[in-house]
Design a protein that fits this description.
By secondary structure, this protein is of the alpha+beta class. The protein has 5 domains: 107 residues, Immunoglobulins (Immunoglobulin-like); 200 residues, Galactose-binding domain-like (Jelly Rolls); 114 residues, Jelly Rolls, CATH 2.60.120; 345 residues, Glycosyltransferase (Alpha/alpha barrel), CATH 1.50.10.10; 106 residues, Maltose phosphorylase, domain 3 (Sandwich), CATH 2.60.420.10. It has 14 helices and 51 strands. The strands form 10 sheets. Strands 15, 21, 22, 26, 27, 28, 29, 32, 33, 34 and 35 form an 11-stranded mixed beta sheet that branches. Strands 10, 12, 16, 18, 19, 24 and 25 form a 7-stranded mixed beta sheet that branches. The radius of gyration is 29 Å and the shape is globular. The two termini are 48 Å apart.
Length: 919
């Protein structure tokens, strides 16, 4: 028997030797609680449990499970499931099984294991896993919020605010041997936590941002190993983040502000004799604002003066007599709730590709990649010398930074040397979006190895890989990958570099769906749904930006409608039914609000942005001036609302609101009739002014009269090929449907042409002009580059969805990929695709290539799932699996032949199909 190495997805690694049971080849791996990477301080009384089955055998399906949950590892090992023993449950469910045991209370530890009965036998018990409950009720919090509610002489509060970091400390005595210590903290805007001089955790920019008037996130840490019997010291640094807003006293009608940084912390210490002590934040703590972090501002940068370092301020025995007593301050407004999404972390590091000299005191670093994060520097110099780092995405012709597109963001970090040997420094409470760094005042000649680029984003797993025979598609995919990760900042933001960085809803309407093939973004987007819900007005309105750091309540369909499409994505891709239940009332409230306020003669009359960022007719224009390229906003709003009604009908059925479905269906019928009466030119078989978006939206959402679909589609193809030379002509809204629409209606070749173009306008044009992420504008290098963010994701539309579902042929047929449809496109000019997606059930693989008329395809289907596999072939007689006729292969059942494909049902396992193709 071999031992297996199990990586628990809990933020810590357990290497477990596990002797396989008699079955020998079916194993339970990767137990997950609420799918968290760190299951400490869970904030729900009914957490969901999931597990993954691993086996090389074909046809492994779960028949039943038994879950045991105990209050201690000893009880679990002894078979005493004092919290919950599910008994044998005959069910295939292995994802999101809701805890149904004894009521759970704050700070409770829970230990669990599972065993399975499968089509290949019983697995035996898994190794145990653990979660703990958070502080579930307000009264569970001890102590008070503390802070310093004022600025100091060296601070400045205006449009370009400067506020130094606050340093807090508290000493306490642990009177005997410590059995366990758990710490709960929320530091607003951002915090770093220390115990006895050691930093706790590898999180950065914590906690994740929220509307602090509605919700405040806290984090939980097991700090047992960091404490000792006797004297201990707690240290916390508070940065400004989005709590102390970057632009004070500037456009208060638009920019929401919250106040000065503040802290709340509870430390629960359990001693060996079973007694417990609590250390909490109160006015016995000491604080100073006069430390080395002189200012920290997400737009403008961080300044650190090492000559003002405080020594061992976070260790016992430090003399803090000159420090101020902490103030008891007003609560932020929002109830502290457990952060269930991942922390931001330093996820990658990059070395500069080159260092070039601009003049005697200025050098330019080229990181080789547009990235998000910061620079760590190593330097040796004289006390008081200042090094300035300034960041940009591109250079001017003279080699200096191009800064115009950053608007008024100063994006400058400053480090003042203390002059004691080699010094290493990086900022704590800011991030930048950049490829190039201007280094001013560095002592001597800087070298590449004096700097490290720290790439920062949410600590989520990369779950997808994708490669094809086409170099343009491959580079666009890499650009998308870097752009997406760079804009994951505890919420999805639009860009990471200029004075914006806002969570615009419309940027992710379909984009989040594509991202879900590449990243495990379920928790990020579940948290974002909460942000959107909390931003809803009492009458039902939803803003275009949520959390509503900017007050953009303009009413719209396409941007706020993202609330529904994200919920749909979470259910389809991750099986997240709970989010549908939670948000259905708020989604219905918004739908009713928009219908009540903006319906006229059956048409939704309100649209705000149109088909944003349609490629202009000239490389020099930011927005098109040609009315023939612009789509009627009321057409966009009405077609989008019709699609949202389809989703609401589905959500109502799923969540038990069946009484709502008749109303949704009736309104859809009314809307369809009014829409076609208003916009459809029956004689021409085209909509409105005939833009690709005007025809694509009704075709994609089912508004086209029955039997007229091909006429409408023919206009899309003609417009794309004849009028636009085989180039894209849609903006943000139309591009959400474009690539799938072309493939679904029989022209994947046109989609492939759009995907591989390298001339304007196209994704490849960005690549051709040196982009390493995705631009905000199709012609961002020529149409007033000052308006162009070089790291935006909104123009991706459904491109990544098309990559995976159509080129690779990986599509969820049931939630969370419990059932999969695998149907790759066979396109002239594309010779192979290698793609994987790690679903909650395991890795799905699709690797195909053409070989002299044969279609060679390796398919991997995870245990406890099935796939419908469409093999290009004239019929079943032309299809082999592992060199034998496919119809007789283990785990393979022939279903039918349709449209040049032999279709099979395939059980779990890895298969090697061989079919035929004709271009």
């Amino acid at each position: 028997m071999k031992f297996m190495m199990i990586q628990w997805l809990f933020g810590w690694l357990l290497l477990l030797g596990y002797t396989l049971p008699a079955l020998g080849q079916v194993k339970v791996i990767n137990l997950r609680t609420e799918l968290l990477s760190n299951p400490l301080g869970i904030g729900t009384r009914s957490p969901r449990l999931s597990w993954e089955i691993n086996s090389e055998r074909r046809g492994v399906e779960q028949l039943a499970y038994q879950l045991c949950v105990a209050s201690s590892p000893e009880k679990l090992a002894a078979g005493d499931a004092d919290l919950w023993d599910s008994g044998r449950v005959d069910s295939r469910q292995s994802v999101h099984v809701a805890y149904a045991g004894a009521p759970l209370v704050s700070r409770q530890d829970c230990f669990w294991k599972v065993r399975l009965w499968t089509t290949q036998g019983e697995t035996g018990w898994s190794e145990p896993a653990h979660w703990s409950m958070g502080l579930l009720d307000y009264v569970d919090w001890r102590g008070r919020w503390i802070g310093l509610d004022r600025a100091f002489p060296w601070d400045r509060e205006d449009q370009f605010s400067r506020l130094s970091a606050r340093y807090f400390r508290k000493e306490f005595d642990a009177r005997q041997t410590i059995k366990q210590a758990v710490l709960y903290i929320t530091g607003l805007g951002l915090y770093e936590l220390y115990l006895n001089g050691e930093r706790i955790g590898d999180q950065v920019l914590a906690p994740v941002p929220t509307d602090y008037l509605k919700d405040v996130k806290y984090n939980t840490f097991d700090v047992t190993a960091h404490l000792r019997e006797g004297r201990n010291a707690i240290g916390v640094i508070l940065g400004n983040g989005r709590y102390y807003t970057m632009r004070q006293a500037y456009k208060p009608h638009k920019i929401k502000t919250f106040g000065y940084p503040k802290l709340r912390m509870n430390l629960y210490v359990t001693y060996a004799d079973g007694t417990m002590e609590t250390v909490h934040s109160d006015d016995s703590w000491k604080v100073t604002p006069d430390g080395p972090i002189r200012t920290n501002n997400e737009y403008d940068g961080e300044e650190y003066d090492a000559t003002k370092e405080l020594g061992a301020w976070h260790q016992p025995g430090y003399d803090d007599t000159d420090w101020l007593p902490a103030m008891l301050v007003q609560e932020p407004g929002g109830m502290p709730t457990a952060q269930m999404s991942e922390h931001m972390k330093v996820m990658k590091t990059l070395q500069p590709r080159s260092v070039s000299r601009l003049n005697d005191s200025v050098h330019i670093l080229d990181m080789g990649q547009n990235m998000t994060g910061w620079i760590q520097l190593r330097v040796k110099g004289i006390r008081g010398q200042r090094i300035k780092l300034r960041f940009a995405e591109s250079l001017q012709d003279d080699g200096s930074l191009y800064l115009a597109n950053l608007r008024d963001a100063k994006v400058t970090d400053v480090y003042t040397l203390k002059g004691s040997g080699t010094e290493i420094w990086e900022p704590r409470f800011v991030y930048h979006g950049f490829r190039f760094v201007e280094v001013t005042g560095y002592p001597g000649v800087p070298a590449a190895d004096d700097f490290v680029g720290k790439v920062v984003y949410d600590g989520i797993a990369t779950t997808g890989s994708f490669e094809t025979s086409d170099s343009t598609i491959n580079q666009v995919f890499r650009n998308a990958y870097w752009g997406i990760l760079g804009n994951y900042k505890g919420m999805p933001v639009d860009c990471p570099q200029r004075n914006e960085r806002q969570p615009w809803l419309g940027d992710r309407t379909t984009g989040a769906y594509g991202e879900s093939f590449v990243f495990d973004n379920a928790k990020l987007y579940a948290k974002w749904l909460d942000d959107i819900q909390q931003a809803q007005t009492t009458d039902g309105g939803i803003p275009d930006v949520a959390p509503a750091f900017w007050r953009y309540y303009g009413d719209n369909v396409t941007w706020p409608g993202t609330y529904l499409t994200i919920a749909d994505m979470l259910y389809n891709q991750f099986g997240d039914f709970r989010s549908l239940q939670k948000h259905y009332p708020s989604m219905k409230k918004w739908m009713d609000y928009m219908r009540r306020k903006y319906t006229q003669n059956g048409i939704i009359t309100k649209d705000k942005y149109g088909d944003w960022c349609v490629p202009p007719e000239s490389l020099e224009l930011i927005h098109s001036r040609d009315s023939a390229r612009r789509t009627d906003g009321q057409l966009i709003a009405t077609a989008t609302y019709y699609r949202l009604l389809q989703l609401m009908d589905r959500f109502a059925r799923l969540t038990g609101h069946d009484s709502d479905t008749m109303a949704y269906q009736q309104y859809r019928r009314e809307l369809k009739a009014a829409f076609n009466s208003r916009f459809f030119d029956s004689a021409a078989g085209s909509y409105s002014n005939g833009t690709v978006t005007a025809n694509l939206l009704p075709l994609s959402v089912g508004l086209v009269p029955q039997g007229r679909e091909q006429e409408v589609f023919a206009h899309i193809v003609r417009k794309t090929l004849a009028e636009y030379g085989g180039h894209i002509s849609t903006g943000v809204v139309g591009t959400q449907w474009l690539m799938r629409g072309l493939s679904r209606h029989g022209r994947p070749d046109v989609a492939f042409r759009l995907a591989t173009n390298r001339t304007y306008p196209s994704w490849g044009y960005m690549v051709e002009n040196g982009a390493t992420t995705i631009w905000e504008l199709w012609n961002g290098n020529t149409a007033n580059p000052a308006m162009n963010s070089q790291n935006h994701v909104m123009l991706l539309g459904d491109l990544l969805v098309w990559y995976y579902e159509h080129l690779a042929g990986i599509k969820a047929a049931e939630p969370a990929f419990a059932r999969i449809v695998m149907k790759p496109e066979v396109i002239d000019g594309l010779d192979f695709v290698h793609a994987t997606h790690r679903s909650l059930f395991g890795t799905i693989g699709s690797h195909w290539k053409k070989d002299n008329g044969r279609f060679l395809w390796e398919v991997t289907v995870p245990p406890n799932t099935r796939a419908e596999v469409h093999v290009p072939a004239a019929g079943p007689a032309d299809v082999l699996e592992s060199g034998q006729p496919a119809s007789g292969a283990e785990g393979v059942t022939y279903l039918k032949t349709q449209n040049g494909r032999a279709i099979y049902q395939v059980l779990s396992g890895t298969y090697r199909f061989e079919g035929t193709y004709r271009n």
